[in-house]
Amino acid sequence: xxxxxxxxxxxxxxxxxxxxxxxxxxxxxxxxxxxxxxxxxxxxxxxxxxxxxxxxxxxxxxxxxxxxxxxxxxxxxxxxxxxxxxxxxxxxxxxxxxxxxxxxxxxxxxxxxxxxxxxxxxxxxxxxxxxxxxxxxxxxxxxxxxxxxxxxxxxxxxxxxxxxxxxxxxxxxxxxxxxxxxxxxxxxxxxxxxxxxxxxxxxxxxxxxxxxxxxxxxxxxxxxxxxxxxxxxxxxxxxxxxxxxxxxxxxxxxxxxxxxxxxxxxxxxxxxxxxxxxxxxxxxxxxxxxxxxxx
Length: 295
Description:
- The protein is 43% helix and 7% strand.
- The protein is an alpha+beta fold.
- Strands 1-2-6-5 form a 4-stranded antiparallel sheet, with no helix packed on it. A two-stranded antiparallel ribbon has the order 3-4.
- It is elongated, with a radius of gyration of 30 Å.
């Protein structure tokens, strides 16, 4: 039996579409990056492991089949064309043969656009997935810590922009930086803990710390008391921004020990506060990554 080789092309950025044979979810990898000569693949969503040639997408398979059919039908038509003949004149009975038709058309496709591009810090594979969090298709390293740190870096860039901005815009950028910083941490922590602590919220980091301590996990390891209290205070500020337009209320005064004269006034948030919070949250992120492994 004759075999055919079909070239599956990469997209404009050099990524190749993949589809998990187990969960059937779509992702992309960039060939030439990652572990050299690694012939298997992990699904970034369900962690299914299998040979690379089991991860073709349905569209790629349909395209490959259509290319082969196009080749076979084209060759068949050429062969039949050679059998064509015209009827002979001046004969009582004469049969002519005419071959018509076209090769089977090729079914083309385009790779899909995905939401998050990642370069694995562990093995340097470049891959793209839906959502934000997933496992590296080469080494199976979960990217939650890497995504959190990348979002912290974006907040630092926002703070750099704030330095040259007018005062009203500067204040808003700093406030956004605080909210984005805490949202990035909350997203990371929920993702990291979703298997063991599926209902645990990190918007209230003080309560989250107490819950995890019941399992022997101290997320504040490496922070002294004043640094931890600073973190809790910044989370309270974010709560005011989200629910009180940043105006100090009695609950905030009670929880943070702020002087009562601040009641009804805007909470104070500086760029240095946000930078310090990022430094402290990186320590907490590292602690969670160390003590809570994704299954």
